[in-house]
Amino acid sequence: MKRILYLFLYLFLSCHPSFSQPVRFYPIGPVNPSIPLPSTVLGYELGSRFTDYRNQEQYLNRLTASCDRVKRVFYGETYEHRPLQILIISSPRNLAQLEEIRTGNLKLTDPRSLSKSDGDRLTNSLPAIVWLSYGVHGNEASSTEAAIAVAYQLCAGTDERTTAILDNIVTIIDPSINPDGRERYVHWINGMASQVPNANPEALEHSEPWPGGRTNHYFFDLNRDWAWQTQQESRARIKLYRSWMPQTHVDYHEMGYTSSYFFFPATAPFHEALPSEVKKWGEIYGKGNAEAFDRIGAQYYVGEEFDMFYPGYGDSWPTFNGAVGMTYEQAGHSRGGLAVRKPNGHVLTLWERARNHFTTSIASLETTVKHRRERLEDFLKYWRSAVDYAGTVKGFLLEEGSDPGRASRLVSGLLSQGIEVHQLQEPARIEARRFFSKKTSRDLFPIGTYYVSLRQPQGRLAQALLEPQAAVRDTFYYDVSAWSMPVAYGLQASSTESGVPASARILTDPPLVHGQVSGGKAHYAYLIPWERHKAATVAWQLLERGYSLSYATRQFEMGGRAFRAGTVVVFVGQNGDSLYADLERLASTEGVDIYSSNTGLAEKGISLGSDRIRPFKKPTVAVVAESPVSSNDFGELWYLMEQEYRIPFTAIRASELTHDELEHYNVIIIPDAGDLRQVIDSAGVDRLKRWMTNGGMLIGIDGAARFFVKSKSGLTAGVLQSDKKDEDKTKEEKEQEKAKKESAMRQSLFEKEEYHRLAAIPGTIYRVNVDTTHPIGFGMPPEIFVFKQDGIPLELTESGHTVARFSNDSTEVSGYARPDRSKKIAGTAYIQDFKIGKGRAILFAESVTFRMFWVGLNKLLINAILFLPEP
User: What share of the chain in percent tops pLDDT 70?
Assistant: First the structure.
C-alpha cells in the first residue's frame, strides 16, 4: 500500500505546476516588457527551487539596471561579508523628490518643532512609507522568493493597481535581512532535495541539520535583536530604518508546515505604552489581507498568537517607533522544503508559500494606499501623544557606578534608537525610587548620572526598554515576560516623578569612557580592579602577550584605595620593559583604570607577597557544539568569547567529549543542551570524571548543568528539586502535591492545558545572592538580578559550594511567574562548584549570556574561566 501511495505522490509532484512549468502567481496585470522577468535571469520560475544568494544578486542587478522606479541602497554587511541592501521603489516623480519626502517624513516624528498647519500639510501631501522585511529567519525561505516577485511587480507593472501604489507609497524592500542564515539553509536544501521533491515529511530533505539556517553567523535570532542591537546586521538596519521611519512595517516569516497563514491583528498581551490605534490598524490591515486571501481561496487565521509585548521583535520595535508593525507567518519553515504533505493530505509547495507572501505584500500596499492620509495622521498623532505624556513616572535615572563602561554602552544603545538622554553636570538631590524598592526617598545622585525623560518623542520606547516591570493583564507570553535594560546591564537605576534636572545637559554623542594608568610608571606592581567588565579583556590581552599575572583572593587597601578580591596584580619584576606601554594602551582602548604601586606593603588587608595572591594559569578552552547543544546558546558563548573578550576557544562536537583529545583543554564549557545521553553514556561520564580528576574544569550551563547532577549522570552530587525524596519534603510540599494530583483527575482537557501554560516561567527576573569571596563572584555585587527560564531548580547540597543562590524572598521581581513556582525557586542554587580530584565541575542553573544583552552577568562565566583553573 505504501509503495502505491509513494508512486501516486511521485506522479502528482511530477505533474504539479510548481515542478514542471509553474503557473506564475505574478504579475497582477500588464507589464513593461523591457523589465526582465525573474525566470529569464534565474533560468527557472520562482517557487520551483530556492534562489541562492548569487542568483538573487544577479537578478537584482538586472532589475535595478533596467528600471527607473527603483533605487538600490547598500547599508552594511554580514559577519560573512555578504552585503545588506534595500530596494526603494516608487514612481519616478517620487524618486526625484526622495530626499524631500524622507526629510519631510522625519519632521512628523518630532512634533515639538512642527506647527499644526505644517503637520496638516505634510500628512496631506506626503506619500506613505511602507517597509517590507523578508527573511529575518534564514530557513523561513519562501519570503525572499516573494520579495523578488514583489520587486518585479512594482518595477514592471503598468496596471492601475500598481500605478496607485507607486504614486502613493515609497516602498522599501529588504529582500533578505539575514543572508548568512538563508544561504546556510539554501545551500543545504539545494544539495539535499530530490530531483522530484519528496513530500513525505519524514524524508531527510525535511530535517535540517544543526545549527539550521534560522539564525545569523553567530547563531543569533535577529528577530529578537531589534531593540538590543547586539549583532552588526541589527545595528546597520536600525541606523537605516531610523533615517526613514516608515508608517507601516511588515516582517515576513514562516511557521510549522501543518498550519496555514497568520496575519494581524495580533493577540494579547499588548504593552501598555502602546496606543489603542495599534489594534485598530491591525484590524484594518487584517481585513485587507483577508479579502485578498478570500479571492484566491487560501486559508488563514488572525489574533490567536504573536503578541505585542516584548519590544525586540520586527513587529513590536517598529510599532514602538510609530509604525503599524506586523508579523505575517506562512506555513512551511525549514521542514517545508520544496513540497511537504500536510496531515490533511494537502501538498504544500514552495510555490504556494511564495504566492501567499506575495499576495499579502500587495494587499498591504493597497491597504496603505486606501488609508494613506489616515495612516499619516495617526503616525503624527503617535509622536504628539508621546511628547504630551502625562504619566506619574516622568523619567529614569541611571547611575554609572563602579563600571562606567556598562552605563555608557547602555546609553549608546538608547541614543542609536533616537531616545534622548541627559547627563548630570553636577550632583543633584532628586526624589526617586530605586528599582524594586517599595519606598521613595530624596537621594543625592552623583555627577555623570544619566536621566531619560518619558516626555519625548521616543518616550514610549524608552519606557518599554527601561522600566523595571512592564505592566500586563494577561499571562500568555509568546516570548519572555521581563527584560529591563538597566537590570540586564547590572546598573543601579531609579524611577522619578521629577522632570529633567536643572544641571543636566542633553547628550548629542555616545559617552566615551577613558581609562588610564594612575601614578605613572611603577617600580613594584600594577593593580587592575576587577569591577569593570573590560578588565577581563585587559587581563587576557596581557596573558596573550606572555606577561605573568596574579590575582588577589582577598581585599586589601593601598594608597587609600580599597582593592576588592579579584584585583589583577602585575608584578614589574616578573615582566619585561614593554609592560608599562602596553598597560597604557590597553587602559585607554578598553576604558579600564589601572593603578601603580611602588610597594607590596598594604595599608590594610593582605600584602602583595601573600599566598592569597595567586598566579593565573592561562586557560585552554573548548566549547561544545552540535546536537543536542542549543545552537542559540552556543552562539552566545561564541560571540562572548570572540567579540566581547577576544578569548580564543576550540569548538568541539558533543560526540568528542569521550575522546582522549580532552587532555588538550583544561576548561570545557557545555552550553544549554537537550538530552546529553545521546552523546555521553556511562563510559563517557567516567572519561570526563578522569579528566577532571587530573585537573580539568567542566562548566555545564542550564540543561547541561542538570545533566551532571547525581540522578542523571552521577558526575556531581548536585540534586534537582524534582529528585527530592518524600522524606526530605516538608509537610506543606506533600500537601500541595496531593492537592495537585487530586485536582488533575477532575480537570477538563482545556483546564489541564491552561494549568501547564500558567505554570511555565517564560523568562522572568529574580534576585540572587552572590558569594563575593568565591572566585566566580569576584568583582560582582553581593546581590544581582538574573534572568530565569523554566528549568528545574537545583537544590542546595552539603557537597560542593553554592556560589550564588536565589533569594529566600519567594517572589519574582519582574515578569510573570505563578506564586507556587516562585516559592519553589526561593533559596535554590544559581551556581554550584563541585571539587572532583584536582579539577571541578561548575553548574550554572541558568544562562548568563541571554541574547547577549544581559551584560551584567557575563563576568560570572568569565571569572570561572580565568580564575578557577589550577596553576
Answer: 93
